[in-house]
Each structure stands twice: as C-alpha cells, then as structure tokens.
Specification:
Elements (H helix, E strand, L loop, with lengths): L17 E6 L4 E9 L9 E9 L2 E2 L8 E3 L3 E4 L5 E10 L9 E8 L10 E4 L3 E2 L2 E2 L10 E2 L10 E3 L4 E6 L27 E7 L7 E11 L4 E6 L14 E7 L10 E3 L7 E3 L3 E7 L3 H16 L15 H4 L19 E2 L11 E5 L5 E9 L13 E2 L1 E10 L11 E3 L14 E6 L18 H4 L9 H17 L12 H11 E7 L7 E7 L16
Parallel strand pairs: 9-14, 13-15
Antiparallel strand pairs: 1-8, 2-7, 3-4, 3-8, 5-7, 6-7, 10-11, 12-15, 14-26, 15-24, 16-23, 16-26, 17-18, 18-19, 19-20, 21-22, 21-24, 23-27, 24-25, 28-30, 29-30
Helix pairs in contact: 4-5
C-alpha cells in the first residue's frame, strides 16, 4: 500500500487500474499520473472515475475539497516504458488540509499490448507475527554479510514491483517485555539481517540499479524500539548504561492523516511515520570486497573503530561461517560502503529513487534495518527500529555506474518529498568544537594521543566535536525544567534517545575557522501538548 492506504501505482494494463499523483492545496494545476509498464496507447485513455483521498479517507463531497474535471491529455515521458496522463484539476482546499493529498484516478485504458511488469514478493517466516532468526530462516531469504557468492533468492525484471519482508536491525531480540538489562549485551554479530539478494535480469556490472521506494509499512506485530547499547552510539562515553524505549506503532491513522509511534517510556511524545530502509544496497564484487577489506584493515591497524569479518553467527554459514570458504572476506553490514548498505539516510522515504552501481551481474539487491522514523545522525545508534514490509520498483540504467562515480546516489522528482520530513515548529541548538579541558572525546582517541588534545578547550575545524557540542546542548535543553518543551522535563537518557529519532544534526558552516558550526534541530511537533493532532496546532 502507498501512504494513507492507497493502492500501488498502476503497473499493469488491467481494467480499473489506478494511478496516483501528488495533489497540493493550490488552485489550478496539471497533475501527472504516471502509468508504468504500459505501452503507448493506440487511442486516447478514457477517464472513468476521480476520487480524492487523504489519510486513507475518500473525500468527495466533504465540503473541504471540490474537483472539477477538465479535458485530459496524454503525452510521452522521457523515461522509457512510461506514459504520463494529465488532467487539469481545480482544487479548493480548506484551512485544515495541511498534509499532502493524493489524486486517485481509476483509468480504463486500451493499450497496444499487455504489460510484462510483475508483482513479486520475498517472504520471511514469522511465529506469532515476529520473524524467526535469520539463521533459522527455512526459506533461505536472509543473510547478514556482504559477499558476491551469496545466492540470489528471487529473479525480477526491470519494471517489476518487489515487496521485501524484513527483520529489524538486531534480528528481533527485543519485545514489549524487554528490560534495559536485556539490552546490555546484544549479539552484534547478528547485525544486520537482510532480505535478499534480488537478482535483476539484464543488469550487469557497470550498470546502475534504480530502486524507487513505493511503500514502507511496519510488520504485523506493530512494535518498535530505540536502544542505547553500552559501547555503541555517538555519545557512548557519556551514556554508558543500557536503555530502551518501547514504541507502539499505529495500525491506522488516528486523525485521518498521520500514523504515530507512541511510548510509555516517553509519555507525551508521538513520532509520525516517515519510514525508510536504514540498510539497502547491492552486492559488492570481488575487487570491491578486497579493496574495502584492505582499507578497513589498514584503519584497524592504527586503532580505528573497525568491525572485521566475523564468521561466528554469519549467514549464510556455508559461505561465511567458521568453515565457509569466504569467511575471511564476508564483510560486516554495519559500515556503509560503495554498495550503499547501512547508510541510515532518513531522506530515503517513499517517492525517492536510490541509485546503486552494479558490481555483479544481477546487482543483488537486499533490504533490512527499516526505521519508522529517525533523526539526522541517529545519535544513540538506533532509530525507531522495526521489522517491516517494504515495496520497491526496480529499473536498470545501462552503463552509467562509472558516470555516477561508482557510488550510490538518491534523487526524487516528487514535489514536497523533503518538505514532508520537516517540522512545523522547531527549536535548535548550535555547537562549535569546544570541550572541557582534561578529556579527549571517544571518536578521536584513535588518531590523537591524549597529551595533544587533553589540555585544550577548543579544537580546530572539528565537525565531530561541534556535533557533540550541539547534541549535549540539546540534551540540556530537554532536561532543564525552565527550557524543556516536553510535557515534563526528560531524564538525560530519555533526551538522548528522543534526539536519536526526532532531532536533526545539520552542518551549518565549514569555513569559519577554527569553529565550524553544527546545529541540532528538535521537532517540536512530536510533543502532544502542542496540539490535539500532534502537529502543534489545535484547529
């Protein structure tokens, strides 16, 4: 399903198929309806029904919206295999219409021939709605290492729509009864269980795989969590004790527009759904595996924080386990690399297209580590983690990997895709590279000896230290009774975990030496006291 419960965009020539386009609260504009997988029509498309939906509710005759249908047209789209139908739409939107609506037009089309695009699914096994462990997956659809020798689990063709059922980042060890003590020592060898790889027919090394995000939904247990694991996270030297926030994930939009995550551990807070895959990428080829391994080993040799290949608990065990032939080159999934992987880019939401260089024939797409929502920085090391159901469309751009620099990109031509992630109200702190004398921050101990930095209270051109300063100031703001915007001041660990899901660290300047500036933006809309609908408005 698309956001707000709408069906998928049309991808087959079938009577009653539906196409959708964003509808903004404007007066008159042309709204393209992208029909994928259709051959060019031999006669004009016939518009048979128009409906408007917001928050999953059809809205004709509500008094807030009226639509007048004009003459529709059709034109070719620059992308092969697509047609764009357009119709002029006049919209009268009331003041309550803040979220983006979607125009749903049911089309009956006479086309030159059938579409060959397919709906495919990569399933996982669940017991009581919770995924079984990756290593116990009888369907063979899970792996937790990167290596080109991992067998693909499904074939797809360009233009196909593929649904991935996924596990959470830690392989689902936590639940509604988990205590902080249970979080103290999770098995990091299990991170990240990924669903795939998907083999895309016709894709070759040197091509680019274009993956368009169509839908992200929570799994059937509707549970999420945010944790602080000792020894992990941006402030691991400050927050040394384990902690967890248990999240209940809305099944439907309670106010007709938005689905929220709420928690008894953070009363008065609710975080809207902006789902995305924290880990999504393609398989590395043999040359890329070797290059990544060597550079990470070089870093590890000088005390850099590197997780080398670990055969214990590796899946597939027959390839990557203790007796597997590739055990020394099955790379961990925690660091992102040129294949994408664990990038944790919160902007990779529905409506964006992710571009991955193909390093092996078929590309080998895998998805996991899905987030209900995340702040830029994911500072505790986790967002709102959940098992999930992710739907994407796969296409191939031939021979473009080198032109794209053999590194991932993301793009979108959907209006408002980034604006939807921004808060209506915010408060921000600003950080510069300053610290108390007598300490060296944890992320910098590997390359500076203590005598060099310990006595300093100001460092030069240090974005990491500036980000830390901004984050610590935000934690102070959230915990100080006179300044906290929360319904009641938070504890320091509550503030840290909230920042991981609802604060955005942004680089503000990289020129004003020695003090680069990083700002930390808190989404005030997450506090229920700011309005009955959680948006900061009472109307």
């Amino acid at each position: 399903m698309l956001p707000f419960g709408l069906p998928h965009p049309v991808h087959a020539s079938q009577p009653g198929a539906a196409a959708y386009a964003p509808l903004s609260p404007v007066t008159t504009s042309w709204k393209p309806l992208v029909l994928t997988g259709l051959r060019a029509p031999q006669k004009p498309l016939r518009l048979v029904q128009v409906a408007v939906a917001e928050g999953g509710q059809k809205w004709p005759g509500s008094g807030r919206l009226t639509i007048r249908q004009g003459e529709r047209k059709a034109r070719t789209n620059p992308l092969p295999g697509k047609w764009v139908a357009q119709l002029p739409v006049r919209v009268c939107a009331g003041s309550h219409m803040k979220n983006q609506a979607f125009l749903a037009a049911a089309l009956l089309a006479a086309v030159a021939g059938p579409s060959f695009a397919k709906n495919l699914r990569i399933p996982i096994t669940r017991i009581n709605k919770v995924p079984v462990k990756c290593a116990d997956e009888a369907l063979g659809t899970c792996h937790n290492r990167w290596h080109p020798g991992i067998d693909s689990v499904l074939d797809a063709s360009p233009g196909d729509i593929v649904t991935f059922e996924t596990r959470d980042a830690f392989d689902n060890p936590f639940n509604r009864d988990t205590t902080p003590a249970d979080v103290a020592a999770p098995n990091l060898n299990l991170i990240h269980p990924l669903t795939g790889p998907l083999h895309v027919n016709g894709a070759q090394r040197g091509d680019v795989l274009a993956v368009t995000m169509i839908d992200v939904q929570p799994g059937p247990d509707f549970f999420g969590y945010t944790v602080a694991v000792p020894g992990f996270g941006f402030l691991r030297d400050v927050f040394t004790e384990p902690a967890i926030v248990h999240w209940e994930l809305d099944r439907v939009a309670k106010n007709g527009r938005t689905r929220f995550a709420t928690s008894k551990d953070l009363p008065g807070v609710r975080v809207p759904l902006h789902g995305f895959a924290g880990t999504i990428g393609v398989e590395l080829g043999e040359p890329e595996i070797e290059r990544a391994f060597l550079r990470e080993e070089q870093l590890r040799a000088v005390q850099g924080f590197v997780l080398p290949p670990e055969p214990r608990d590796a899946v597939p065990a027959k390839l990557c386990g203790p007796s597997g032939p590739a055990r020394e080159r099955c790379l961990r999934t925690i660091p992102p690399r040129e294949n994408g992987g664990n990038t944790d880019v919160k902007q990779m939401v529905i409506g964006t297209t992710l571009l991955f260089p193909c390093f092996i024939d078929g590309c080998g797409l895998s998805i996991g580590d899905v987030h209900w929502a995340q702040g830029d920085g994911e500072v505790s090391g986790t967002a709102i983690e959940m098992n999930a159901i992710v739907t994407v469309k796969v296409e191939v751009r031939k021979n473009l990997a080198a032109k794209y620099g053999n590194w991932p990109r993301l793009e979108s031509n959907r209006s408002g895709v980034l604006r939807e992630l921004e808060p209506d109200d915010f408060v921000a702190t600003m950080g510069i590279p300053v610290k108390p004398a007598g300490i060296v921050i944890q992320p910098e101990k590997w390359f500076h000896s203590d005598p060099e930095l310990t006595p300093l209270t100001n460092q030069s051109e240090d974005v990491t230290l500036a980000a830390r300063d901004a984050l610590l100031k935000m934690i102070n703001l959230l915990t100080e009774p006179s300044t906290s915007p929360a319904p009641k001041p938070l504890t320091r660990v509550q503030a840290y975990l909230l920042c991981s899901v609802a604060c955005d660290l942004r680089i503000s300047n990289l020129v004003d030496v020695p003090n680069y500036v990083v700002s930390d933006f808190l989404h005030l809309d997450v506090f229920e006291k700011r309005g009955g609908d959680g948006t900061g408005n009472d109307d």
